[in-house]
Amino acid sequence: MSTLDFEPTSFGKACAVRSLGDGTFTADLRYEWSIGGHPHGGFLMALLAKAGINALVERGEPPVDPMAVSAEFLRPPAIGPVLLRTDIRKIGRRATVVAVVLEQRGRSCVEARVTAGRLPVRRPVWNDAPQIPAEPPAGSITLSTESAEGAFNLAKGCDVRIDPATAGFLSGRTGDPPRLRLWARPRDGEPDPFFALLAADINPPVVFNLGRFGWVPTAQLTALVRARPSPGWLRVAVDCRSIQEAWFDSDATVIDAQGRIVCQARQLALASGP
Q: Does the predicted model carry a pTM greater than 0.85?
């Protein structure tokens, strides 16, 4: 049986961390939460946030949620066990900051700052969300385990639909604007703030619309969690402002079933091709 034939682990179980009792945690990076054999960047963001929040729980702090995660991707970890080291940098009344480092085989792979606090519960005073249907319309394409970037193994753990009108690369077109519209939800359970972090990086790279395929490594990713998602589909609008040589930016806005912005993310990444 291949590594992709087993029963997939739910998102909640996959991003669980195990405490060693001294501010360090262990976790397992699994195939079904990877892209082409590389652990998914959004999943790593959720894992880093989970370690930071759990470090505060161990200290006896009141319950909080991730509000912002800013990560530097130094080198891609492999599928398998990892160590997460946490360092509480600030305990605040409104915002607390925890540094988290993901290590594997003695090498630092991802270094992050997690800002934690209590997410807003009231309706937003201002919510300039992109206009996307609340649910995938007829004709939306389900992303399967095979993609131009490599094996989209996340399809085993979450349901992802894409608007074909924004994804010309799926039908062989190139030259479309680097913008995408998607819908995502976990296959087991409902979205939470950690899944919102994953959803903010769940899209195929926007440069695929320009014919630049292949693995697209992230150099830096910052995500803001704005509210706890309501049950149902998460809508994701992804845009790009500039592509210069190999470098490009990717901005994602994640909207829940109630039309609220629940996560915003911006990353700097490297594209394949000329």
A: yes
